[in-house]
Amino acid sequence: MAFFDSGIGGLNLLAQCTRRMPYANFTYFADNFNMPYGTLDSDELFYKADKIFVKIAALDPHAAVIACNTVTAVCAKRLRAKYSFPIIGVEPAVKPAARSGGKCLVLATPATALSRSISTLLERYGNGVTQVAACPNLADYIERNIFNIDENKIIKMLPEYSPDSVVLGCTHYTYVKDIVKKFYNCKIYDGIYGTADRIFNVLPQKCAHSGSFSQEINFCGGDEGKNRAVFSLLFPI
Ligand code: DGL
User: Fold this and answer.
1) What is the mean pLDDT of residues 45-71?
2) For residue 6, what is the DSSP state?
């Protein structure tokens, strides 16, 4: 099964899926040297994402997971129209957060915050209490400083607001969840756990079992060494 994110963000979801599917093989595609994706317009984003999808398609995968909220929000429809294998995306966990009551804040990249897909999600499930805020530099900072994150720098990139819950609307933000929680002092919702459950439930059986009782995880494209190193911290083998 193929996974794709602009950089290290999708590794969080990959780690959840490898735990749920211990006999499945995964190939993680990333484009670290061309990120951030969240500041691109929709055509630029599709162009970059599609370049990776051409490589994914060459593997003839059972399915592909877009472990990136930005690519899902802006390009999932176009990618699904072009490729015939199942493509599963990630979505911010607005539904459970809004249901918990009070004011809900979704943190996302600028491209996700401006997307039609997030406004539809908020109209449908936001309960009239959900706002989205763009964090233009946050994913890029996390990507470049993953081994040395400065809490004060992260805090400066968070919008001033007093929410009752915060939704992490970018897979990179999972790495700074504790800082976000401390800053807003409220409940944090992260879509990766629900998405990992959904992936496990909707995927054809052949994706979850490679045929052998072992697991292979490969890294393809971008900064493979860094992706492997970060993944090994999330999922020590
Ligand atoms: N990890 C990606 C997301 O979930 C985006 C990071 C980027 O801006 O490249 O939205």
Assistant:
1) 96
2) S
101, pLDDT greater than 60: yes
Write the pLDDT tens digit of every residue in 209-230: 666 767 889 999 999 999 999 9
Residue 205 CA to ligand 1 center (angstroms) comes to 29
Nearest to 220, CA basis, from 45, 40, 64: 64
Tell me 62's DSSP state. S
Mind telling me the catalytic residues?
68, 170
The answer, yes or no, to whether any atom of ligand 1 lies below 6 A from the CB of 53, is no
> pTM of the predicted model, to two decimals?
0.95
Residue 163 beta carbon below 6 angstroms from any ligand 1 atom: no
Ligand 1 and 16: CB distance under 6 A: no
**CA–CA dist 9, 39 (Å, integer):** 16
Query: Tokens 């199942």, residue?
Result: 86
Q: What is the pLDDT of residue 137?
A: 96
The percent of the chain in helix, strand and coil, each rounded to the nearest 5, is: 50, 15, 35
Contact present, 8 and 226 (Cβ < 8 Å): yes
Q: Is residue 3 within a helix (H) or strand (E), and if so which, with residue range?
A: strand 2-5
Average pLDDT, the chain: 93
